[in-house]
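Researcher: I'm preparing a figure for a lab meeting and need a structural model of a single chain. I don't have an experimental structure, so a prediction will have to do for now. The sequence is pasted below. Please return the structure as tokens so I can convert it later.
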Amino acid sequence: MDDDAFGEFQCPHCEGEFEWGEKPKARAKVNVSSEPMSGIKAGSHALHGAGGLMLLIGMFTGWLTVGGILDASPFGMKASVYGFSASVSWFELFGDGGDPVLAIFGIIFMLLAIVAIVSQITHIVFRVVHHLSDAGKLEISMKMAYRSYQYRWHTSLAALASSVAGVVVMEIGLLIGFGGELASGFPRPSVFGILLLITLGGQFFMMNQELANE
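Model: Understood. Here is the structure written out token by token.
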């Protein structure tokens, strides 16, 4: 009998049946298609997740500041002085006493921020689909597999480009809207705005590193 033989057999001499061997132990299945996640991919996942979270928070946080008193967010401006604060939306600036030019720049800023967050969410969805499909944990169509792989670079770039464009547009709008009244300070990105752009720039750099390794 073979060493790994197991089960019931018939004797060729007496034709009697007998059992032989031990039942083989079950072996854990090994997924040959899965590979350990590289440091670049793990870092890229972390940065893209952080970028998405910051863009969500950034819809209600000032991206630019003037003299530490006036903050400009995608939905409007907020002024804070000695514990008192007042806010105004971009659409309210079209009313009496408002500044329609500043309102137009603010609305463009808002639209660019929305494009950035939609692009970031789309990118994260593509990343998750591609990662699960590549690990053999998700079955998708060839068309979806192509989109999730091909458009990761484009959506990551769109989030970064839209955010940078939004900051530039709003800075120009503040310069035009306030003109010579900016003696208290020059419009510049806030601490949050700087961290947001650094994070989005870092995730785009890591995205390129991923593609280079692939």
